[in-house]
Amino acid sequence: MAGVSPVPTVALLNGAAAEADPGGLRALAQVNYGHTTALQVRALAAQGLDLHLARLRQGTAELFDAALDEAAVRGWMAQAARQAGGDCSMRLTVFARDFDHRSPLREVALDVLVVATAPQPPRTQALRVTACDFLRPVPHLKHVGAFPLFHHRRQAQLAGHDDALFVEGSGALARIAEGTVWNIGFWNGRTVTWPQAPALRGTAERLLQAGLEARGVAQAQRTVTVGELPGFRAAFACNANGVQPIVAIDAVEYAQAPELMQLLADAAALAPWEALE
Description:
The protein has two domains: about 10-115, Aminotransferase class 4, branched-chain amino acid transferase, N-terminal domain (D-amino Acid Aminotransferase, Chain A, domain 1); about 125-270, D-amino Acid Aminotransferase, Chain A, domain 2 (Alpha-Beta Barrel), CATH 3.20.10.10. About 25% of the residues lie in helices and about 30% in strands. It has six helices and 16 strands. Strands 7, 8, 9, 10, 11, 12, 13, 14 and 15 form a nine-stranded mixed sheet that branches. It has a five-stranded antiparallel sheet with strand order 2-1-6-5-3, sandwiched between helices. The chain has a two-stranded antiparallel ribbon with strand order 4-16. β7 (about 125-135), α4 and β8 form a beta-alpha-beta unit. The longest helix has 16 residues, at about 50-65. The protein is globular.
């Protein structure tokens, strides 16, 4: 709209303007060893903040054998959000500029990059996806090694699909894992089924599961194979940017299910907004 200033991009490295420390950013780009989390912030608050902090805590312990200063991190998050106007999309990346792959056990000081950009409205586009036999490396960590995720998404779009769905194996017995940057759920009209295979268990997925449980909706967490896909009525993708219907997985077509999308929206709305600091 005319006269409205764009939301600035704010990048803080250890609480200071990232552009003032280009060496730290170069180290992140060159070493590509670290972990991350992404969230939407509204009025200096976020849903699932405790889950995001737990993810950062786990990643820091596993990758660096170190403890994260969560009070400092929350302060930097609030600082970046305030500079971005209070509402923003936010990504945190924990890395160490002194990390040396030749001596990966050496103790290092942690670096935290907080980037706040314009807030993203929930994505509602219906998706047509294609299955590919791939599991992300170290799938339980949201690490910075995103090349294969984006590569498979690009290949899917070159083939006329919107995105890729990762499965373990081939043929009818292949196990459904996750999307490139989203988790997947299925609906049979009564139960929401969350497929279980090596995958990153997302914050949005966990918040939806809690909200559905609170509303008394039946859920199942089990192995789902490609051969079972025609037996479901609907499917959906979820991540920090919202919930999107999946209307096709290769040749399997699903009808739009507005009652499911409303059910998921109601479940998501139950998650409290937690102040960043």
